[in-house]
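In response to the reviewer comment on reproducibility (Comment 2.3), we provide here a single inverse folding case reported in full, input and output, so that an independent group could reproduce the run without further information from us. The structure tokens appear first.
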């Protein structure tokens, strides 16, 4: 994934569905400067790791580079504006999570059920008024 593409879960989902064993994000976080935005960007990468059950490697020019394991745990991270070299052995994970297989079906089903539940009393009133 390039730059802010790790903000979009659908992209990492498609990569893993296509056979990716590891997710790599190279990004230019220079425009964040010393704000908290670089850490927010890192948090999105943690979500992609958990959703797909894949390790994520982030390589940034000025932001927070990191190795995030498949559970979302940060195994290593750099500081802002710090030059580093990080070497690791990466597990080549396979298998697909429910999210990778089904996408956003569960959240949409929950929303539909919520509206059905909220609407049920009104439907009941309408039918009882018709009797």
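Designed residues, in position order:
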């Amino acid at each position: 994934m390039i730059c802010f593409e790790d903000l979009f879960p659908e992209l990492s989902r498609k990569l893993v569905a296509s056979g990716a064993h590891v997710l790599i994000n190279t990004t230019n976080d220079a425009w964040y400067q010393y704000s908290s935005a670089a850490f927010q960007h890192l948090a999105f990468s943690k979500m992609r790791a958990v959703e797909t059950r894949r390790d994520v490697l982030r390589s940034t020019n000025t932001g927070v580079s990191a190795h995030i394991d498949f559970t979302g745990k940060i195994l290593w991270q750099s500081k802002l504006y710090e030059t580093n070299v990080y070497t690791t052995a990466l597990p080549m994970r396979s298998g697909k999570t429910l999210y990778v297989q089904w996408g956003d079906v569960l959240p949409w089903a929950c929303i539909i059920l919520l509206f059905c539940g909220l609407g049920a009393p009104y439907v009941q009133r309408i039918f009882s008024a018709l009797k």
